[in-house]
Design a protein that fits this description.
The protein has 680 residues and is α/β, with parallel strands linked by helices. It is built from 27 helices and 20 strands. The strands form five sheets. Strands 10-9-11-12-14-13 form a six-stranded parallel beta sheet, sandwiched between helices. Strands 1-2-3-7-6 form a five-stranded parallel beta sheet, with helices on both faces. A five-stranded mixed beta sheet has the order 16-18-17-19-20. Helix 14 packs antiparallel against helix 20. It starts with 16 loop residues before the first helix and ends with a helix. 55% of the residues are buried. The structure holds thiamine diphosphate and magnesium ion.
């Protein structure tokens, strides 16, 4: 960028808050200008608030971005990412000026919206408005729970704040209601939000579409609200933060009036500064306006050293480490457990836990709904992995998510391991992401599969950020019956399978359910467990077949010699297919049944294994799944057939609805017989 330097270089002898804030303004407008893409308005508007928070209050150590007891800082209005990148760069995180210059370029660490990059101090992605606020609720809840579990008198080893910036967009989004209402009920006193009340969103002045009284709204949620703060007055901001930190029983919302793009003389206060480069003339005018005589990307040494938080951060962390050392002496077992939990390692006896869970699955003989098998597995594993934290979006009894030994989370006693998220699927999922991002807790949460759509974007961010969460989705097909088409998932399996990095299991019986749960606990990223409402019979397996369940797809029933035909099925359809295949094989045909509880896990197996299960040469193939057929053509090919459902369901008794859509052993047999008549 070749901005003419409007002023001679003036050495600064002392630094003021405004000059420090202007470092953020200058870096932000220069980076956006250089990329000719990005959002200068929010960083320029919130720079004064950020300066006060980061220089006076935030507990962090740029030399160790993942210090366990750091305060968490999130941007829910993540389009203002240059604010965060400037702060990280200026305070001494390993985010170089080169990265700032490469803002929004392919391969840089300075993406348009900050994702999850903890090694750089980036806590979470916040591109979709409002979700950062919900993640912050999860992070604050995790802090609360870990503090209850691990702190002991004299040893507050978990004791940090969660700060989140949000804008008009975040507060317009419905998820802010879900998450903030829950945060109020839970009384998350160490959650502190800053509302960037600038009266502007993309379409212009918000007065035409957003006229809530935000202060009253948050008061009604039971939050502590600091209204009417001048977001450009450092003393007012500091006083508000002090008041918020002093409030232990309620989360705080600090409502800050700001001018978007503050400092850009002709564009500030207008929607133009929201998401466009200022233009070289306006950048030059802004330099003059804020008194910034330096070249693009130049921050004078005095200002740099005033921002540099490395030695203060290191001192803060070492003070905490001293407490940790004494804690280790006083509570050695707890200290070891704390380290294990925060490093994400499973308990030392996890293998033993897996054996017990699988044995319980094998011991189940009577037909059982896989949602009940899931609960039975939880009864075995949950008491043995203390990091587990369950819940449901008001369907605890239907999702079977509450294990026997579960202790309910109580706002006054946060040592429980089960909570009621209320009817808030999206909020629940984003809060679970926040909990997982904090570390030390493994959240799972239930709802009906059909309502995964309500949570969809948080599910997507779980996959994008690779958060370790388990999504328990029950009532997995038209087999749920009377509730009818609004409750009957059709395209959901396929759409979840289409999501990169989402692992999905749809087990067919108690044993497969136990395997799926243990795989979900072992995986570092998100897993969806898709479970039946209705009872399913148990399948017999050899030891080899038992071992192969972990591979996502395996031969459940084989025939003598080379198969003439392959049948693939998942979940509730496996038993129908098994009946049909057994009958045909009994009459001398050679049909193989492959149970495929997880297509993505199967796809990740080596080629030889996949070939051994689905030999290329066998072209007659049939897939059976009570959902959209789209998932299956890649396995059955153009010569194959799929028994699925490509329309909405119907209300009626579950078994009758299933039969209506062709999910009977007889129909599977008929389709197979047709297929066997075709050229192989
Ligand atoms: C869920 C979602 N919807 C839409 C967008 C696109 N978008 C990005 S910023 C924005 C307007 C945000 O207004 P505000 O929060 O007031 O931000 P400001 O302009 O004040 O920085 C919109 C609609 C988005 N990022 N996420
Ligand atoms: Mg705004």
């Amino acid at each position: 960028m070749d901005n003419a330097r409007p002023f001679p270089r003036v050495p600064l002898m002392t630094t003021t808050r405004r000059e420090l804030a202007n470092c953020i303004r200058a870096l932000s407008m220069d980076a956006v200008q250089r990329a000719n893409s990005g959002h200068p308005g929010m960083p320029m508007g919130m720079a004064d608030i950020a300066q006060v928070l980061w220089c006076d209050f935030l507990k962090h150590n740029p030399g160790n971005p993942q210090w366990r007891d750091r305060d968490r800082f999130l941007l829910s209005n993540g389009h203002g990412s240059m604010l965060l990148y400037s702060l990280l760069h200026l305070t001494g995180y390993p985010l170089s000026l080169e990265e700032i210059r490469n803002f929004r370029q392919l391969g840089s660490h300075t993406a348009g919206h900050p994702e999850h990059e903890p090694a750089l101090g980036i806590e979470t992605t916040t591109g979709p408005l409002g979700q950062g606020l919900a993640n912050a609720v999860g992070l604050a809840l995790a802090e609360r729970m870990l503090a209850a579990q691990f702190n002991r008198p004299g040893f507050a080893i978990v004791d940090h704040f969660t700060y989140v910036f949000c804008g008009d967009g975040c507060l317009m989004e419905g998820i802010s209601h879900e998450a903030c209402s829950l945060a109020g009920t839970l009384g998350l006193g160490k959650l502190i939000a800053f509302y960037d009340d600038n009266g502007i969103s993309i379409d212009g002045k918000v007065e035409g579409w957003f006229t809530d009284d935000t202060a009253k709204r948050f008061q009604a949620y039971g939050w502590h609200v600091v209204p009417d703060v001048d977001g450009h007055d450092a003393e007012e901001v500091a006083a508000a933060i002090r008041a918020a930190r002093a409030e232990a029983a309620r989360p705080s919302m600090i409502c800050c009036r700001t001018v978007i793009g503050w400092g850009a003389p002709h564009k500030q206060g207008t929607p133009e500064v929201h998401g466009e480069a200022l233009g070289t003339d306006e950048v030059a005018a802004a330099r003059k306006e804020i008194g910034w005589p330096y070249e693009p990307f130049v921050v004078p040494a005095e200002l740099r050293s005033a921002w540099d938080h490395r030695s203060r951060g290191a001192a803060a962390e070492s003070a905490w480490r001293e407490v940790l050392v004494r804690y280790r002496g006083a509570h050695p077992d707890l200290a070891r457990e704390f380290e294990r939990r925060l490093s994400g390692e499973l308990p030392a006896d996890w293998k033993e836990t897996v054996s017990q869970a699988l044995a319980a699955g094998l011991a189940q003989k009577a037909p059982q709904a896989t949602r009940q098998s899931s609960q039975a597995t939880l009864n075995v594993i949950a008491p043995r992995i203390p990091e587990i934290f369950g819940g449901s979006a008001d369907l605890t009894g239907s999702n079977n998510t509450k294990f026997k030994a579960a202790r309910e989370l109580d706002p006054k006693n946060a040592s429980g391991d089960y909570t009621h998220y209320g009817v808030r699927e999206f909020g629940m999922t984003a809060v679970m992401n926040g909990i997982a991002l904090h570390g030390g807790i493994l959240p799972y949460g239930g709802t009906f599969l059909v309502f995964s759509d309500y949570a969809r974007n948080a599910v997507r961010l779980a996959a994008l950020m690779n958060t370790h969460v388990v999504l328990v989705y029950t009532h997995d097909s038209v087999g749920l019956g009377e509730d009818g088409p609004t409750h009957q998932p059709i395209e959901h399996l396929t759409s979840l399978r289409a999501m990169p990095n989402m692992c999905l299991w749809r087990p067919c019986d108690a044993f497969e359910t136990a395997v799926a749960w243990t795989a979900a606990v072992e995986r570092s990223g998100p897993t969806a467990l898709v479970l039946s409402r209705q009872a399913l019979p148990q399948q017999g397996r050899t030891a080899e077949q038992q071992a192969n369940v972990r591979r996502g797809g395996y031969v459940l029933i084989d025939c003598q010699g080379t198969p003439e035909c392959l049948v693939l099925a998942t979940g509730s359809e496996v038993s129908l297919a098994a009946q049909a295949v057994s009958t045909l094989n009994g009459s001398g045909r050679r049909v193989r049944l492959v149970s495929m509880p997880s297509t993505d896990v199967f796809d990740a197996q080596d080629g030889a294994y996949r070939e051994s299960v689905l030999p290329r040469a066998v072209r007659r193939r049939l897939a059976v799944e009570a959902g959209a057929t789209l998932s299956w053509w890649r396995y059955v090919g153009i010569d194959g057939r799929v028994i699925g459902i490509d329309r909405f369901g119907a209300s009626g008794k579950g078994a009758e609805v299933l039969a209506h859509f062709g999910f009977t052993a007889e129909h599977v047999s008929r389709e197979l017989s047709e297929l066997l008549k075709s050229a192989g």
